[in-house]
Write a structure and sequence with these properties.
4 helices, single chain, mainly alpha, 50% helix, 88 residues, 2 domains
Length: 88
């Protein structure tokens, strides 16, 4: 199961220098700090959807292990992610 992207991650992806707080992950309860210019809710929602889609598309640990095993058996090169699943 993919992790859920937090609104702060979307805010920082839009503006890495942003200073903000989000109460209980609620996009309607954002506090902008240190003079940070507020980002439109629609822009945050769009970035959240984009980041969540990227997260959801990542293969699971089990999928990576299965892929690594199949490639090893076939003599194919592994991706770095697949190699990271192998415990020696």
């Amino acid at each position: 199961m993919a992790r859920i992207i937090d609104p702060i991650e979307a805010i920082v992806a839009i503006n890495p220098a942003a200073k903000a707080g989000v109460k209980e992950g609620d996009i309607d309860q954002i506090t902008w700090n240190d003079g940070t210019t507020p980002i439109a809710k629609a822009d945050i929602e769009a970035k959240l959807a984009e980041l969540q889609a990227e997260e959801d598309a990542k293969p699971t640990e089990a999928e990576l292990k299965a892929s690594a095993k199949a490639k090893l058996i076939a003599g194919e090169a592994l991706t770095e992610e697949e190699a990271d699943t192998i415990v020696l």
